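hey so i finally got around to running the thing on that chain from the lab meeting. sorry it took forever, my laptop kept dying and i had to restart like 3 times. anyway pasting the input first so we r on the same page abt which one it is
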Amino acid sequence: MCESNAYIEDNGNEILYLEAVDILRPEGGKIYLKNFWGEEKVFKGEIKEISLLKHRIVLRIKSEMLVNKRREVSEP
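ok and heres what got predicted. didnt touch it at all, straight out
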């Protein structure tokens, strides 16, 4: 099988997001993923790294999204 697992980078840790990803498609600031079993997910962020040999996709939240979230939390 040639599918890859997708992980989300979170504070230096990688959390499994979707196994056996078959389709990965950028869609206007989001990433559409579909796996071997037909499960679909849309991630709001960017691709950090894809390793074809290790069958790994690493995703991360865009830094501008983190800044906006911090502002929302700190503003009354």
